[in-house]
Amino acid sequence: MSTDVTIIGAGLGGLTLARVLHVHGIPVTVHEAEASPSARMQGGMLDIHDYNGQLALEAAGLTDAFEAIVLAGREAMRIIDRDGTVLLEEADDGTGGRPEVQRGELRQLLLDSLPDGTVRWGHKVSGARALGGGRHEVTFADGGTVTTNLLVGADGAWSRVRPLLSAATPAYTGMSFVETYLFHADTRHPAAAKAVGGGSMLALAPGKGIQAHREKGDTLHTYVALSKPQEWFAAIDFTDAPAATARIADEFEGWAPELLALLTESDTAPVLRPLNGLPTEHRWERVPGVTLIGDAAHAAAPNGEGANLAMLDGAELAKAVAAHPDDIETALAAYERDMFPRSAAAAVDGAELYGFMFSDDAPHGLIDMFTGQEQGQGQKQ
């Protein structure tokens, strides 16, 4: 079996790449390990930025469709002290610079924009090898194979395509999130809902924090952050939800009840999310016929840029291929030349943000960062 462009992974980056290639009339096939679009929950809210994610959607011809799924008001943000005192509050200014959408709805928008059959579900990659001349063969868990002139790994932090280019693997950052949900929060968990407000809420302390976001309707999605070694989390039995919840809650003794409720009253079992990342300056020498986008290329701890960068990677790679349809190597070189510094700068900014969020003077360092930015913007205007 042969195809012009083979994408591994039907996340936001892979689907954006497929859509922009389709806009330019370039055939593409996406192989995805999941059995269907609804095989698992697709995560929570995403703020799609006007300097990267929105540019990708514009290249995909999907700006109007995107605007139709934006959740008004969710750009509001507040920082709360551990006793529940609001220390900083910013309203959603309605300018649309970072509008919020549900990840699952954005993914479905991209899926709906592709011709039927573009995505091949249930195709889990077991390996990939070079055939020479820029061609590659991908082998799937069911024994099937596909050969391609251009192979793109859009398959996340644990990419099966990356070894063709790089020996790097993600390393633990020293922090993990514990994910919880409260459903029908305004009626069933009113104190927690009031604490979170209409958008996002950050309650931070040195090395720990409770971060929550109001999703569609009155669902509250929470990430409890802890700077602990992996061995510490490994000693917790997350299959015993009450015991795991109690152990995590012990780390927040004395915090306001409405903040603790985001963990202790969860309507779902707590899920451990270790944060892993590739080296900040991760890059590779040009290898004919293969490249990476998104977390496969530059996985980092969540900092609000990951999905945006993945989508921009996809759009920029597609535009480069469209500009050089008969010279794939020129296209890949141009894409990687711009992608490497772009992703490295985002990783540096993300590490700086985490420093502000969880430093010894948290949450005041983050507040100073926000207020300093606002003063700087005011001076420029």
TrEMBL record:
This is Flavin-dependent monooxygenase. It comes from the Bacteria. Residues 3-344 form the FAD-binding domain. It comes from Streptomyces formicae. It is an enzyme of class 1 (oxidoreductase). Its cofactor is FAD. PANTHER family: FAD DEPENDENT OXIDOREDUCTASE DOMAIN-CONTAINING PROTEIN, MONOOXYGENASE ASQM-RELATED. GO terms for molecular function: FAD binding; monooxygenase activity. GO terms for cellular component: cytoplasm. InterPro entries: FAD-bd (IPR002938), FAD/NAD-bd_sf (IPR036188), TetX_monooxygenase (IPR043683). It is found in: Cytoplasm. It catalyses: a tetracycline + NADPH + O2 + H(+) = an 11a-hydroxytetracycline + NADP(+) + H2O. Belongs to the aromatic-ring hydroxylase family. TetX subfamily. Consists of an N-terminal FAD-binding domain with a Rossman fold and a C-terminal substrate-binding domain. Its EC number is 1.14.13.-. GO terms for biological process: response to antibiotic. An FAD-requiring monooxygenase active on some tetracycline antibiotic derivatives, which leads to their inactivation. Hydroxylates carbon 11a of tetracycline and some analogs. NADPH binds at R40. Monomer. FAD binds at D47, R103, D295. Keywords: Cytoplasm, FAD, Flavoprotein, Monooxygenase, NADP, Nucleotide-binding, Oxidoreductase. It holds the Pfam family FAD_binding_3.
